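Hi F.,

I've been meaning to write this up properly since the lab meeting, where we talked about keeping a consistent format for the predictions we share between groups. The idea is simple: the sequence comes first, exactly as it goes in, then the structure tokens exactly as they come out, then a line or two of notes. No screenshots and no reformatting. I'm using this chain as the first example so we have something concrete to point to.
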Amino acid sequence: MKKLLLSLCVALLTPICGVAQDVLPLIPQPQNLTLRTGTFKMPKKVRVYVPAYENDSVQGVVDRFAAQLQHSFGLEMKAAVTPKRCHIELRINPNIHDEGYRLEVEQESVLLEASRPAGFFYGFQTLKQLMPAELMAGVATAEKVRPEVPCVSITDEPLYGWRGFMLDEGRHFFGKDEVKRILDMMATYKMNRFHWHLTEDQGWRIEIKKYPKLTDVAAWRETKKLGWGSEYPTDGEHYGGFYTQEDVREIVAYAKDRFIEILPEIDMPGHFQAALAAYPELSCTPNEKHEVWLHQGVSADVMNVAAPEAIQFTKDVVDELTALFPFGYIHLGGDECPTHKWEHNALCQNRLKEIGSTNFRDLQTDFYKQIQDYIQTKSENEQRKLIFWNEMLHGNTSQLKDITVMAWIGADGAAKDAAQRGFDNILSPQIPYYINRRQSTDPNEPRSQGHGHETLEKVYAYIPANGIDKSLLPRYKGVQANFWTEYVFENETLEYLTFPRLIAVAEAGWTVQQRRNYQNFVQRLNQHVPFFELFKLSYGKHVVPVER
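Output, unedited:
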């Protein structure tokens, strides 16, 4: 395998085309594609016409592509005053979907049409995939070259508006550089939502200025490896980390440049023990000692949703999240929350009586309603919609308005239930979209969640919203792969398990089912191996079925 991969990288220009001449290396598969005869050869000085657009946001997309051309191939891109005699023309077409584009590559010129900056960005991503892999990887060639692009006609737009990836950094911390690499890969494959799981029983990873102990105390623990009985003991290492608010702003800006919105998740009232170690007054047992959890699984130590301190804490956190993340959504978790502590707490018992319920699950929805009501008092630009895991459906959801349910356990049924209740949903099925699970039966696979495995083919084979009544389909907003990090604490392992399976999810979120075909996907994926190598991506080489 090493010899094979090395042989793919020896040339000065590493073509991304090459497995099958009639299969272009485009991922996701465009909705409509026609391959024509001939190629467009990039001139040494590329003249590009960019139409006027509000805030020069289209110009920003062009400037980024121009910088990449310059870096990789030494080509210079200059602005053309008119569309006449330019090499690349951008044209605004209001009839195209916000994230859609039309790309016409002819022997003498390239035309790229879109209605919004995102469409132009994705059009350029497609163009980059038709060029040597150095461009996608951000690698400079040894000398100036003039790459050729096959002549094509493409009209394209995404199937879903939400094409996401969730990274759990509550359990293990990976750092800014790794997050940026993930964002780069997502942008390459036209994914647009990065779900950032920032808190857990085992760690709190974001600076909240009003509560400094969250990073002084809750961000650290006395083991790197999380315990699981005698089989997986703790190691006693002082471990942790967090993102400052300046770090967050930097990453948000980085994502925005790649047309990716970041969804922050602060998981509560369950999965909250790390915060309780810092602020025990938020717990049901404020006089007891609480520590950042050193184990896997679900802690029974949860937020006291009936405590005024907890309500105020959540409002304060939401305030700071709103200032840091411009995306119109905040995720507040809601999954796997044991009720035992509530059942034995006087404040919780009294609150349950006040709301006229005997179901302790309703305390959770009551808590969220108070937060939702608070958000609705904010100014228009500070309004945020709330997202929850599908356990939210176990309580009285009638008091909540306009929420989105992220369906993971029993995902198909939960998503349908949410849609029938009038809630939007995002499909994130535990099987097969938890891509932290083993990806093969190989005994050398890194340890990960569960005892099963999810092959690349199984991930690709999942059909979102399969068989759903057309009346409910508008509630299905998209798909998302999740990566939980109980066992994963090395950047290389994170990448290895994520790729190439995340790329399969990217195609499911973009391409209509009629255009999806696994064998065709494999052919296209093979052609991306040179890019993976140049990008120095740790990926599942033994599961990428490279043709010999």
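Notes:
Residues 1-13, 17-21 have pLDDT under 50 and may be disordered.
The chain has two domains: 29-156, 162-510.

If this format works for you, I'll send the rest the same way.

G.
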